[in-house]
């Protein structure tokens, strides 16, 4: 599972982690100047040999550290998507809209320090730090199906603990009926963020959905810290819903009594509903959802039928008893 690390990359990453940010930025800046002048002198090849990390900016794929995890009952027989695919084929629009953009650009995100806000209808609004959040409960390894509304799917081993554990820690008031997630947003490190959307990225769940044991507060995948492009340092994974419900790089959990606005629902309410449960019988405006492409699997047919609730119906169907899933899509 470990990607081979080149020693020079490792050295670069380590220095970026221990060097104060402004010093690191100056260092990067002077290296960039060096590269520019080297290129001007026609010495780009030499520069490439001397400073390989400039040619391939280090990402947290390379920097990933092993996490201590325990096994769980959430396993699947399907072959897992290779990490190399899951960390290079991403939707993270803050880092560009092309699938390959986030793995090239998200190295800019600094995931420490990372204050996490708890706001709204809770006993005591507060801010906690990411390492306290990470160590609050043992991290379980859970292999889930992951289904994007664009009809591709992967099988990914995530590392985290049930969001319900964290919600209990937050002590929501009885009036809180929904939880909203706010992703990090900072133009300085997200220079190609499309201006056509209203940032920060926002998602949300009904409280009973958020409390379902399947909903995972996620810090890692493949036994390693999340690559930045996959939503470091913390995201949610909601495996019975389309991928866009699984917000990345969360900085704030907000408890409210009203169904919260969400980024994709605001962008196009006809296509992206608040619930967005995986449903092969309900097509979006642009896509049939009956089938999905399982990415990078040589062992299964590439085009496979999509399952209701992405195959998690036994655990979540009861959340929607009596609801018209075509009206509340
Ligand atoms: N902050 C943020 N979270 C996000 C997105 C995004 O653009 N920004 N894209 C969503 C979509 S559409 C999908 S399919 C998944 C992709 O997660 P992955 O890149 O880890 O596969 O992240 C979701 N979470
Ligand atoms: Mo998606």
From TrEMBL:
InterPro entries named among the record's database cross-references: MsrP, OxRdtase_Mopterin-bd_dom, OxRdtase_Mopterin-bd_sf, TAT_signal
Gene3D superfamilies linked: Oxidoreductase, molybdopterin-binding domain (3.90.420.10)
Domain Oxidoreductase molybdopterin-binding: 110-264
Pfam family, one: Oxidored_molyb
Biological process per Gene Ontology, one example term: protein repair
GO molecular function, one term: oxidoreductase activity, acting on a sulfur group of donors, quinone or similar compound as acceptor
Catalyzed chemical reaction(s): L-methionyl-[protein] + a quinone + H2O = L-methionyl-(S)-S-oxide-[protein] + a quinol; L-methionyl-[protein] + a quinone + H2O = L-methionyl-(R)-S-oxide-[protein] + a quinol
Record EC number: 1.8.5.-
Cofactor: Mo-molybdopterin
Co-factor remark: Binds 1 Mo-molybdopterin (Mo-MPT) cofactor per subunit.
PANTHER family (UniProt xref): PROTEIN-METHIONINE-SULFOXIDE REDUCTASE, PROTEIN-METHIONINE-SULFOXIDE REDUCTASE CATALYTIC SUBUNIT MSRP
NCBIfam families on file: PRK05363.1 (NF003767)
Function description: Part of the MsrPQ system that repairs oxidized cell envelope proteins containing methionine sulfoxide residues (Met-O), using respiratory chain electrons. Thus protects these proteins from oxidative-stress damage caused by reactive species of oxygen and chlorine. MsrPQ is essential for the maintenance of envelope integrity under bleach stress, rescuing a wide series of structurally unrelated cell envelope proteins from methionine oxidation. The catalytic subunit MsrP is non-stereospecific, being able to reduce both (R-) and (S-) diastereoisomers of methionine sulfoxide.
Subunit annotation: Heterodimer of a catalytic subunit (MsrP) and a heme-binding subunit (MsrQ).
Protein name: Protein-methionine-sulfoxide reductase catalytic subunit MsrP
Source species: Tunturiibacter lichenicola
């Amino acid at each position: 599972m470990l990607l081979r690390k080149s020693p020079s990359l490792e050295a670069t990453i380590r220095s970026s982690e221990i060097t104060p940010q402004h010093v690191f930025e100056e260092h990067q800046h002077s290296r960039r100047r060096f590269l520019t002048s080297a290129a001007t002198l026609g010495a780009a090849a030499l520069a490439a040999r001397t400073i390989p990390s400039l040619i391939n900016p280090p990402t947290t794929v390379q920097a990933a550290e092993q996490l201590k995890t325990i096994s769980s009952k959430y396993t699947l027989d399907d072959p897992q998507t290779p990490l190399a695919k899951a960390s290079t084929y991403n939707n993270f629009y803050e880092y560009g809209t092309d699938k390959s953009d986030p793995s090239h650009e998200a190295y800019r995100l600094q995931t420490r320090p990372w204050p996490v806000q708890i706001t709204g209808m809770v006993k005591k609004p507060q801010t906690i730090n990411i390492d306290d959040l990470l160590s609050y409960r043992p991290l379980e390894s859970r292999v889930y199906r992951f289904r994007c509304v664009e009809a591709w799917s992967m099988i990914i081993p995530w590392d985290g603990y049930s969001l319900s554990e964290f919600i209990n820690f937050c002590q929501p008031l009885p009036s809180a009926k929904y939880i909203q997630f706010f992703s990090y947003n900072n133009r300085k490190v997200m220079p190609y963020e499309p201006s056509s959307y209203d940032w920060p990225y926002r998602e949300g769940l009904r409280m009973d959905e958020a409390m379902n044991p399947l909903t995972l507060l996620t810090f890692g995948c493949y036994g390693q810290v999340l690559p930045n492009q996959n939503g470091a340092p913390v995201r949610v994974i909601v495996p019975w819903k389309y991928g866009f419900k699984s917000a990345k790089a969360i900085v704030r959990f907000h408890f409210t009594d009203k169904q919260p606005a969400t980024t994709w629902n605001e962008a196009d309410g006809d296509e992206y509903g608040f619930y967005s449960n995986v449903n092969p019988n309900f097509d979006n405006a642009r896509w049939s959802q009956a089938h999905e492409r399982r990415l990078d699997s040589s062992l299964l047919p590439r085009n496979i039928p999509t399952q209701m609730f992405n195959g998690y119906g036994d655990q979540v169907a009861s959340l929607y008893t009596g609801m018209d899933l075509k009206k509340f899509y």
